[in-house]
Amino acid sequence: MQEKLLEKFKELFGADGEIRTYFAPGRVNMIGEHTDYNGGHVFPCALTIGTYGVVRKREDNKLRFYSMNFENLGIIESSLEDLKPDPAADWTNYPKGVIWAFGEKGMKITQGMDLLLFGNIPNGSGLSSSASVEVLTGYILKDFYGCDVTNQDIALIGQFSENQFNGVNCGIMDQFAIAMGKKGHAIFLDTATLEYEYAPIELKDAKIVISCSNKKRGLGDSKYNERRAECEKALEEIQQYAGVKSLGELTEEEFEKFKSAIKDEDRVKRARHAVYENQRTIKAVEALKNNDVELFGKLMNESHVSLRDDYEVTGIELDTLAEEAWKVDGVIGSRMTGAGFGGCSVSIVKNDAVDTFIEQVGKAYEEKIGYAADFYVVEIGDGPSRLA
Ligand code: GLA
């Protein structure tokens, strides 16, 4: 595959100069959804699928981008003097945003680049194809352009660019999971402090299966920012009675005690999800440490129910995927993953049930929704790297 990308790069941009190849993964979140902007915990892992980038530095200030996933868009050109979000610039707003963000953080980039991308993460699937592009760009600026940053800095700058340049108020989970990924491990991250711990995911007789709903969504046009605002408002209401900085600081009992401060029934539900999901994530990681995969799976199922009933971010597609999965023998746990409203579910499925799972869930989904879902048996991979 790398060969093909290099060939295409040379065909489009010429063969001269130093050309390098990089990779950044996608991510899947096992549990801890919509907790990262509420000061809670998350438990994501990097995948072995992701974004490949072939890149060359330029002597001038031009930026030339090409994606093999959107060949119809052709080469999209811009310049370092013109780092402004532009709807017509499509996906290139992600690398441009990161280059802009490095400048904002005191690392102004003065040499342009030719960059060709290819991603094998299904687009808009909720496996963070955009954060993957952001981290890939940040890693290129570190490794090729010599910017003095750590991988954790790349995650933070990536989030900053997504918030400020692309106008999506996302939390830190996606960029962190991708920049800090470790093969065979999920990352137990406290988003309030950025303290983290790698937890091995040793599923001897089971696999992680991602079911893609094929319902497209973008964070920007989803209710993502609205949910975030609802949680912020609920926190303010609770703060009139409790000295907490985030919903993630509350236990279930504390929440039940203070919830009457929240003056709107929907906001009570949103905040309840944020609090309970955070506690659930802590319990799930504990269960995994005790080798209790069954309990981990049960908590995944509860997470989906809470996202469906309290946070209301699932929709019929994701509900069908999870609910049909729960019916299959050998499914340890299944839930929607990522922002919701479309995208994917993640399931832990016993090895000998994987084929039945794909067949049964696939059939039921297509009958109910009218189009097919896609299934991926995935592996947990490392963070970004230079390949050549
Ligand atoms: C998106 C955001 C993340 C996180 C999840 C929901 O993936 O980018 O920051 O909020 O949704 O858990």
Question: Quick summary of this structure?
Answer:
The protein is an alpha+beta fold. The chain is built from 11 helices and 13 strands. Alpha-D-galactopyranose binds at residues 33-34, 36-37, 170-171, 173-174, 338-339.
What would your notes on this structure say?
The chain is α+β, with helices and mostly antiparallel strands and 388 residues long. Helix content is 40%, strand content 21%. The chain contains 11 helices and 13 strands. The strands form 3 sheets. The protein has a 6-stranded mixed beta sheet with strand order 5-4-6-3-1-13, with helices on both faces. Strand 10 and strand 11 form a beta hairpin. Helix 10 runs antiparallel to helix 11. The radius of gyration is 21 Å and the shape is globular. It starts with a helix and ends with a strand. The model has no long low-confidence stretch (mean pLDDT 96). Bound molecules: alpha-D-galactopyranose (GLA).
Q: Which cofactor or ligand species appear?
A: alpha-D-galactopyranose
Shape: globular
Low-confidence stretches: none
Q: Trace the largest sheet across and list its strands.
A: 5-4-6-3-1-13
- Name the helix and strand elements from N-terminus to C-terminus, one letter apiece: HEEEEEHEHHHEEEHHHHHEEHEE
**Largest sheet entry:** 6 strands, mixed
Distance between the termini: 13 Å
How large is the radius of gyration? 21 Å
Mean pLDDT: 96
Per DSSP, the total helix count is: 11
Q: Beta fraction of the residues?
A: 15-25%
Helix content: 25-40%
Number of strand segments: 13
Secondary structure class reads: alpha+beta
